[in-house]
Design a protein that fits this description.
Layout lengths: L5 H25 L8 E5 L5 H9 L4 E4 L2 H10 L6 E4 L8 H4 L3 E7 L2 H14 L4 E6 L20 H10 L3 E7 L12 H18 L5 E3 L6 H6 L4 E4 L1 H4 L7
Parallel strand pairs: 1-2, 1-8, 2-3, 3-4, 4-5, 5-6, 6-7
This protein binds pyridoxal-5'-phosphate.
Pyridoxal-5'-phosphate binds next to β8 and α9.
């Protein structure tokens, strides 16, 4: 990748994007869902700002990052671009101020303290409301309960209520990563089906919470079949990451 000229990298990203969009088209058709119900969010983590710039040139409008240390300088370098930034990683409260300088949405809201910190910072900074998604930890429905982040399904509604009532925050929906352990391990279809049930319950009390953020490079078809509205795709667009994160 580092040896490619910018024109070559642009061509590579164009090809990869077209392939991912074709997969999304096919998955929507298979699920009899309108194509415009699904938004592609490109996860640019570990890749340079120059790639984000090329993606914007190719029409990408939604990008995601999972570490503030990498995302903050990248967002600063790209602030002239018409991009919406999604934060999808574990968020420590001491990073909230930095993240809220660029992120329009946080997909990884998973605890009360984080809700309080986000709300306080939005109010203090006077910025526009930030969209919040409750991250659901589907693996926590197991006795082992090994956490990849996310609140237990039984606690989603209480946390959603808190977000909805918090000044400066908007409850946009729910997010999950297909679990590696527990009853849904290696079964993304069932995992995302469970997420869809939870999403629907949340929408029952909060009709505006329409986002279901699910599906990555390996399982976007299963996510779209289960009703995902936002797929988060890294590898299939940018290539395999040098380090696992
Ligand atoms: C890295 C990451 C993705 C993208 O994963 P790929 O398999 O590279 O498509 C999606 N969601 C989250 C939360 C991530 O951290």
């Amino acid at each position: 990748m580092t040896n490619l000229t910018s024109a070559e990298r642009l061509a590579e990203l164009r090809t990869n994007l077209a392939a991912v969009k074709a997969r999304i088209d096919a998955a929507c058709a298979a699920a009899a869902r309108p194509r415009d119900e699904v938004t592609l969010v490109v996860v640019t983590k570990t890749y340079p700002a120059s790639d984000t710039r090329l993606l914007a040139e190719l029409g990408v409008r939604d990008v995601a990052e999972n570490r503030d240390q990498d995302a903050a300088p990248k967002a600063e370098e790209c602030k002239d671009l018409p991009l919406s930034w999604h934060f999808v990683g574990q968020l420590q409260t001491n990073k909230v101020r930095s993240v809220l300088r660029y992120a329009d949405r946080v997909h990884s809201v998973d605890r009360l303290r984080l809700v309080d910190a986000l709300s306080a910072e939005v109010v203090k900074s006077g910025r526009a409301d930030v969209g919040c998604l409750i991250q659901v930890g589907l693996e926590s429905e197991t006795p082992e309960g090994a956490h990849r982040g996310g609140v237990a399904p039984s606690e989603v509604e209480a946390l959603a209520e808190t977000v909805a009532a918090a000044p400066g925050l908007r409850l946009d929906g729910v997010m999950a990563v297909a679990p590696l352990v527990g009853p849904f391990a290696d079964d993304p279809r069932r995992a995302f089906g469970r997420l869809a049930e939870i999403a629907s319950r949340v929408r029952g009390t909060h009709p505006g919470a329409t986002m279901v953020s699910a599906g990555m490079s390996g399982d976007l078809e299963e996510a779209i079949a289960a009703g995902a509205t936002h797929v988060r795709i890294g590898t299939a667009v940018l290539g395999a990451r040098p380090t696992l994160r």
